[in-house]
Design brief:
CATH topology of the largest domain: Rossmann fold
Structural class: alpha/beta
Helix content: 25-40%
CATH architecture of the largest domain: 3-Layer(aba) Sandwich
Largest sheet: 6 strands, parallel
Distance between the termini: 25 Å
Order of helices and strands: EHEEHEHEHEHEEEEHEH
Strand content: 15-25%
Number of domains: 2
Number of strands: 11
Shape: elongated
Oligomer: single chain
Length: 238
């Protein structure tokens, strides 16, 4: 499979390595210093584009790929206020896209465990919930897209919690998310329920970026010959 990479930072380089290990060819690598190569001609032989950039450029990159008629996998976060626009454009152009806040297979299993635990905890109002995420200092968005996905999954199962906010402590209707930045932390996320009697906590800790890259390449393998809008739940058959 021919893959083009948009965003050739640490994740882009890891995706390149994993893709080549799995027998794919990287035909184009586009980053800030060669944006002139982001053309339909240069991407014409790509079976799929994998996009990992910044919140302020992701939407434009994704929509250009859709308009060029190339399936796109995106792991960029911080732009999801425009996700519905991208989905609408994908449908108009009969395109293919898969966007995820986290491509780690373990994290996506964690998302499902989070929803199932929240479904149980919805019957126990004495427990208050909170989310904490820790990432490397180069991560620009806070809270992380993964933390937001966890929060949305939890809120969807617990009606008494109306919304999340970036905060230290919960009031009765808000779910607090704490965002911590430390050097050399690929990503750690925890969901904790606390009462006067005890705590219940689930945690996912990434040891390196390879899990994210592997999931992104698997997503590219999954959608390259399909049309539509997909998620990691489709890939993992959850």
């Amino acid at each position: 499979m021919n893959i083009a990479i948009i965003g050739y930072g640490k994740m882009g380089k890891m995706i390149e390595s994993v893709a080549m290990e799995r027998g794919h060819e990287i035909i184009q690598k586009i980053d800030i210093d060669n944006l002139q190569n982001f053309t339909p001609e240069n991407l014409g032989n790509a079976h799929v584009v994998v996009e990992f950039t910044k919140p302020d450029t992701a939407f434009a990159n994704i929509t250009r790929c859709i308009e060029y008629g190339i399936p796109v996998v995106s792991g960029s976060t911080g732009w999801y206020d425009r996700l519905n626009e991208a989905k609408q454009l994908c449908m108009i152009h009969n395109g293919s896209m898969l966007c995820a806040s986290n491509f780690s297979l373990g994290v996506n299993i964690f998302f499902e465990i989070n929803r199932q635990l929240a479904r149980i905890m919805s019957h126990f109002p004495d427990y208050s919930a909170e989310i904490e995420e820790t990432h490397h200092t180069q991560k620009l968005d806070a809270p992380s897209g993964t933390a937001i996905t966890l929060a949305e999954g939890l809120i969807g199962e617990i009606p008494r919690i109306e919304k999340w906010e970036l905060a230290e402590k919960q009031n009765s209707a808000f779910l607090p998310i704490r965002a911590i930045r430390r050097d050399s932390v690929p990503g750690t996320h925890s969901v904790k329920y606390s009462s006067e009697i005890d705590d219940i906590e689930i945690i996912h800790t990434a040891h390196n970026r390879k899990g994210f890259a592997l999931g992104a390449v698997m997503a590219a393998e999954y959608i390259h010959d399909k049309k539509g809008i997909f998620s990691m739940k489709d890939l993992l058959k959850i």
